Amino acid sequence: MAKKTSTSSASVKDRDRATLTKITGLAGDVAKRAFADKEPLITIPTRTKSNTLWDKRRGILQMGDGTAERQLFNLGQAKQFMQTCLHASSIKDLINAEKTLSLRGMFYKGLHTVAGTKEKTFADQDESDGILEDLEVTLGALREELHIFAKKAGTMVGNITIVDSGDEIDCRRMGSGGYAIPSICEPNIIRFKKCEAKFVLHVEKNTVWSRFNEDRFWEKHNCILTEGGGQPSRGVRRLLYRLHHELGLPIYCLLDCDPWGHYIYSVIKQGSISLAFESERLAIPDARFLGIRAKDYQECELSDDVQIALNDNDIKRANEIAQYPWFADKKPWQLEIRKMLANGFKMEVESLITKDISYVTETYVPERLKAKDWLD
Amino acid sequence: MAKKTSTSSASVKDRDRATLTKITGLAGDVAKRAFADKEPLITIPTRTKSNTLWDKRRGILQMGDGTAERQLFNLGQAKQFMQTCLHASSIKDLINAEKTLSLRGMFYKGLHTVAGTKEKTFADQDESDGILEDLEVTLGALREELHIFAKKAGTMVGNITIVDSGDEIDCRRMGSGGYAIPSICEPNIIRFKKCEAKFVLHVEKNTVWSRFNEDRFWEKHNCILTEGGGQPSRGVRRLLYRLHHELGLPIYCLLDCDPWGHYIYSVIKQGSISLAFESERLAIPDARFLGIRAKDYQECELSDDVQIALNDNDIKRANEIAQYPWFADKKPWQLEIRKMLANGFKMEVESLITKDISYVTETYVPERLKAKDWLD
Prior knowledge:
Two copies of one chain form a homodimer.
Chain A (H helix, E strand, L loop, with lengths): L8 H27 L5 E5 L6 E4 L4 E4 L3 E5 L6 H20 L3 E2 H8 L14 H15 L8 E2 L5 E4 L1 E5 L2 E4 L8 E2 L9 E6 L3 E5 L2 H9 L2 H4 L2 E5 L6 H14 L3 E4 L4 H12 L17 E4 L4 H4 L8 E2 L2 H11 L2 H4 L2 H13 L1 E2 L12 H12 L6
Parallel strand pairs in A: 5-6, 12-13, 12-14, 14-15
Antiparallel strand pairs in A: 1-4, 2-3, 7-10, 7-13, 8-9, 8-11, 16-17
Helix pairs in contact in A: 1-2, 2-4, 8-10, 10-12
């Protein structure tokens, strides 16, 4: 499967220009209302659970039509109105300067004392982050398109060559360290150049990833190997999304058999309910859960050494996850979670080391892939 | 400064062979005592603060001569004796198989029920980690030489080409993501091939690193740019150590002006008191603290927006750090910490964004380097 996609510099500029147009549109609406002697206001889609809809046919979370207004001449809304305009203006500056900034950086950039008062523009970074999420939904643009990034995490190796900011990177020759996945994996930063890989194996922990890389799993099985350092960052999710949707690669996830592992899979598959607006360009409904499975205790003939007792919180989380709309009507997932609860214990991917250091790379994953034995 | 070092495959094998010899020596001593009708025991250097000495002349922490015995026929020591032998045997297997394993993996590999009892070999990973530290000091070998690794973190770009596990990696062409620094940066994994860089700039956070990389600081100032994701892992520290000692590159640290930033610098410079045995091959006594400095509030004309109040714990930590032996007799460090305490607030590197997004890369760091204005 050697596909090639490219994003020309022109289309990058088109995209930034489109984002800029949205921002100036927002400002223009405010100004228009002011000149028409109407109250300046911004209409913002509501980011609440009640305004989140599960689109079963498309298999993704979507936001409903609920909106809220932010008026300048409303004591309870004036500060947020001002904060929204402030950040929108900063984003415009960033795009024009062709620079990116971290969430923390945006907080500092917008931070000052409101003229004539002792009040700060933002009380803390949480307040700033919330306004940026408002802007994402209002402008219909991902944070990354607004030139804003978060902490990066995650690594990739495998049978693919990418171009990152003009540098060609051969992920087949990245040693033991690997290519560090950036925080912004949009097409204007990352292009896929040459890919022979037939699938992506995504693992939870970088220690497990190192085992797969050391055993050169990606070479033997012609794939791409990624890790997200626990719950994958948006950068990692966006990269997986693009590998799946642009190159047609199936995404297999190797995670722990515990509610946290199930939750990580759930986030890769559908996103989080509180941030439904991201799903459209981050969710991978077809992602597959390869293991660890609750049945593996018997099937792999593991000893009781590997059992980590479920605590009350684990049981509560497992029951919550079982009711997520994308698991609720899937019998195999209901059985999986029930079996884990019946076992009464969790198991980590590393538990397979009790069989052999390389059991996971030489036996477990190849057998499961061959038998098409996964959950989705 | 284009130096070249190389580690031939033969010397790698020599090193592994030396480690193996140490392990079989350990086992041999135990056997010899047993055959001579003496109690089998292992003598282990004591890893306590009281057995840690500050070698002022060499500028590093060292372990004293204190040792403790672990006897097989001593109820209070038998379990640790067995655990030590178990892990020593696993390490021998790893070296022979030319594989590496994570700390978590070592726990699982050694985990089983002691024959004839219901007791597990290890209660938890902490117990396993402690035994591995014992083996490091007993064998006089770094954990990495025992083929054991921890979670990796950290990224590098800059004017250097390295060879990682046989793959040549040009850190000048690593895009926005960078080269992910592996957990084991020993010469058998990483070789330095071609380096024009004149120094290393190490920053605390990967979001700050991204700013420097985006502004191509390493290209403009001919350096290497690293980050450690907070407190740097041993992999990152070992890489910095080798860049400093093998290539002669000065290491400049850009960290927050708070006790945590000072502590990170202290760890890079000297290591942690509780793990003095690592210092010999991890500490960089000549590392330099470039900023953020307590004086920067005035000197960079920052607004009060950037002040983050010191809390009681910060004040306690600051006073503790001031008394570390490598800070205690350094007047500039005493003044620095006193000035921070007098300010009453911390400042993050990101606070410079209030001046301009690229103030830190275009003004702050270049000016400080030019004026040789740092602490060491």
